[in-house]
Amino acid sequence: MSFAGETAARAAVFAALGEPVRLAVVDRLVAGDLSPGGLAGELGIGSNLLAHHLQVLEQAGVIDRVRSEGDRRRSYLRLREDNPAVWVAALSGRLPAGVDLSASRVVFVCTANSARSQLAAARWGQLSPIPAASAGTHPGPAVHPRAVSAAHRHGLRLDDASPTGLAGLLGGEELVIVVCDSAHEELDPALPRLHWSIPDPVRVDTDAAFDATIVDIDHRLHRLATLTRS
């Protein structure tokens, strides 16, 4: 992209965020993804008005809308991590009710606990002194071999990891981060948590898919680590 094009793109982002509701949308998506319905509830505005603001943000390259891999009728909103101007604008985030960044442990959850949650916990261990664990709502028999090899490529270790279930792991003082749409939609809505709509690399089953998963996780974890220090 040319200098003029980059400047125009940045201007579009800041123009889109020059409205309180749209800036509030970005604030609430800094730490995690939300459905349009959940976002409307947090902001206390009607769905028609929210739809207008989301359209402006999508056109400006501020947010993406992704289809749930679980319930295909649902969608989730996430910030455009590839747009530096978005992160410059997102100076503060609003967390969902009950989510505490001062928790004594972070628990990453997906369905099988064979890839995404394992990789997230391993990477978090490199970024933060806060302990991390991972679990699955329906743990599989083993960590996926491509997850292990991708971990090695990115300086992580999963050689001794094995899937574990979520039952009995939560004591009420953890920061729960669900990195899987299916697990998020299955868990009790009353459980305070962050949701990251990260595509399942096992469905694609290529090295590139697992590498992309680690990059996605890494971007989100760096942002979360920044929030925990603020």
UniProtKB/TrEMBL annotation:
Could you tell me the keywords of this UniProt record? Answer: Arsenical resistance
| Pfam families linked to this entry | HTH_20, LMWPc
PANTHER family for the chain: ARSENATE REDUCTASE (PTHR43428)
> Among its keywords, does the record have Transmembrane?
no
The domain of life is Bacteria
The HTH arsR-type domain, residue ranges: 12-93
Which SMART domains does the UniProt record give? HTH_ARSR, LMWPc
Q: What is the lineage of its organism?
A: Bacteria, Bacillati, Actinomycetota, Actinomycetes, Propionibacteriales
Gene3D superfamilies in alphabetical order: 3.40.50.2300, Winged helix-like DNA-binding domain superfamily/Winged helix DNA-binding domain
Know the name of this protein? Helix-turn-helix domain-containing protein
The chain positions of domain Phosphotyrosine protein phosphatase I read 104-227
> Can the keyword Transmembrane helix be found in this entry's annotation?
no
